[in-house]
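thread: overnight batch results

M.L. [08:02]
morning all. the overnight job finished for the chain we discussed friday. pasting input first so we're all looking at the same thing
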Amino acid sequence: MRGRPSRSHELPATTGRELAARVLFRVLDEDAWASPTLDAELSRAHLSPSENGRATDLVYGVLRVLPALEDAIDAHRPRRDPLEPFTLACMLCASYELLHTAEKPWAILDETVGLIRRMRAEGLSRFANAVLRKIAAARPEAPMRASRLVLPRWLEEHLALDLGAERARSFAGDRPVPPPITLRSRRERDAILTAIREARPDATLTLGALSEHAILTRGVGDPRRLPGFDRGDFVVMDEASQLVAEAVGAKSGERVLDACAGRGGKTLAMLDAMGAGGELVACDDHPEKLARMDDELRRLGHAPSKVARHAVDLSVGLGKLAVDSFDRVLVDAPCTGLGTVHRRPEILLRVGPEDVPRMQELQEQILARAAELVRPDGLLVYAVCSPTRAEGIGVVQALLSRGSFGRHARSFELLREPVGPIAPDDDGMIRLGPWCDPSASCDAFQIARLRRRR
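M.L. [08:03]
and the structure it wrote out:
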């Protein structure tokens, strides 16, 4: 049976456990994204900081170890029929607390069973009670918070082959939970750091090791409420994304294209690098994303007209973009997003092994057309937030093996130069991830820099 719980679900949640169950219900049953769904429920509920923290830990904890929790539930129920979705969400929360926290079992079971009874039915609450009691009886003596990802077997195999054993262990291993909120400083970094420390003395702030603009924050709350946000002193941006923008090397006086701009995080980073001169163009196949850039441009002190924007699907054609017209082109291509699963573990619910070759085909189409736009001696930068070789070097090699693009013969060489402090691997790809980051919080990205020969 699919669908929402009873009408009492329309009222704000009264505890962190209830709120987490509602969010997970929507993630599992409606394909909602965890972060915006959680934020909306937290804003509606007005719970205490401790209950907000419980809800956040439960949502992301459950999603990180979901396969193991499902196995624990299945081991103690006689039938394998699909569980009613909201009941399952409640049981997953309870199982996570029983196996990974020091909460009292009776408190977990009492609230969970009562919630299912109130939201669903007496029979389902009795079933949940019986299963959860068996899980409680087998809980470890010292439950540990889940800081490792439990990955599906197909992805484990992919990572072992594509990253090697050491990097694969780093990717799925113990990492900070939750990941820090990372800022890209637009003013003097130490001054921003000092202002935030004065406003949030209990927060933890660390300078990023990969980007000279990065500040890693924990316990700061909503970054929009930090000092300097309204002045445009900083932008929320993952450190790996910052390095992607830096890899383009955009300069004043150049004509630069962000070919798959999305909401424009990297576009705005390149705009800062260009200063007052040059022309920056942003394209995406979703024009509504490009339109959302206006407010952020204004916050950062730019007129919206500073970035020219065009709705273009480069997998189909070039639209109004002229060939050989850009000094630098960034293709931050649509991908499986598997490199961000530590931050967005619900991706594992949406992506399967069949999606990797499907995305590779799309990426090859986009990169080949983007290559037509690069002037002689210009730079083409390709990036994906995925660690798979198919979506990385596989796409780059497909481009390099082609002798022509459209009606024009072109030749590119893969540059083997560092990006920031990160040197390329033997195949020329820059591979970012927790293995190169002292904080172990960096998402897994791949970057290739290709120079068009004259």
